[in-house]
Specification:
alpha/beta, UDP-N-acetylmuramoyl-L-alanine:D-glutamate ligase, four-stranded mixed sheet, 8 helices, 13 strands
């Protein structure tokens, strides 16, 4: 099964705090630097759980971008897209209880254009679009074009809603209109994101953190419990869940999410 993801390939800086931050003071922490971004994370987890994956992203042409592409390629992800500009960076601050807060600078990622896309990239079983791709231009137009190309090959389309704060700032009605034009088969989101947007998509996956997730198909609901694991870092757990769900359904989704939260960082 080939899953193509479209969105961000960024530098992830994970800072897991050993103690709470105090203004003007130092705090002990563990840090990791890896490739990241929602599209990159999902692609890496697809490969890790047994699928084939390709990540379509506009990335920089600086030394960080070379390293990022190499890191993702080493994870058996086919990395494609124009390389020009400055690499984006995401800093994830992880509290001692594993909950994370992110500060994002998307760099060149939002500059992906429809003309950058090679139709051959979208000969796939599923196209997964990061919700962040719907929040800026011209990448939103590139996402729409990618969906058209993938549909011509009979691919399923999935979207992750991304951050409720960004949806609210962008305008929920505006975001929903863009999403409905894509007509996704599967939409992933946490409860706060669904509260902002309302119901969209044939299949809705509602992520509930430590309580697991629910899958809504028509009038049917499948309740899925989270695995009982020690939570180290929740960064990327939703991306791992999406990858597992697309490749193997709810059981594999729960397994991938559990693997992710038991380690530092979003990558497998």
């Amino acid at each position: 099964m080939l899953v193509v993801t479209l969105g961000d390939l960024l530098l992830d800086v994970i800072v897991r705090l050993d103690e709470p931050l105090a203004a003007g003071a130092d705090a002990n922490a563990q840090t990791r630097t890896t490739a990241g971004g929602q599209a990159a994370n999902v692609a890496a987890w697809v490969a890790a759980v047994g699928g084939e994956s390709r990540c379509v992203a506009r990335r920089g042409d600086d030394p960080a971008a070379v390293w990022l592409a190499g890191d993702l390629t080493a994870r058996e992800v086919d990395v494609v897209g124009r390389a020009e500009g400055r690499s984006g960076v995401v800093v994830s601050l992880v509290a001692p209880d594993g909950e994370r807060t992110m500060a994002s600078d998307r760099g060149a990622a939002t500059l992906l254009e429809p003309d950058d896309l090679d139709p051959a990239w979208f000969t796939c079983d599923c196209l997964h679009i990061s919700g962040y791709a719907l929040l800026a231009s011209p990448i939103d137009a590139a996402a729409a074009r990618a969906a058209e190309l993938a549909r011509t090959h009979g691919a399923r389309l999935s979207v992750d809603l991304s951050a409720w704060t960004r949806i609210r700032a962008h305008g929920p009605a505006r975001f929903r209109e863009r999403l409905e034009l894509l007509a996704p088969d599967v939409v992933f989101g946490n409860t706060e994101e669904w509260d902002e947007l309302g119901n969209v998509g044939e299949t809705r996956v509602v992520k509930r953190g430590a309580s697991g997730f629910d899958v809504f198909r028509g009038g049917d609901v499948e309740r899925c419990q989270a695995r009982d694991v020690s939570v180290v870092d929740t960064t990327g757990a939703g991306d791992a869940l999406a990858a597992g769900f697309l490749v193997g359904g709810a059981e594999l989704a729960a397994e991938a999410a559990a693997r992710c939260v038991a380690q530092i960082g979003a990558m497998p």
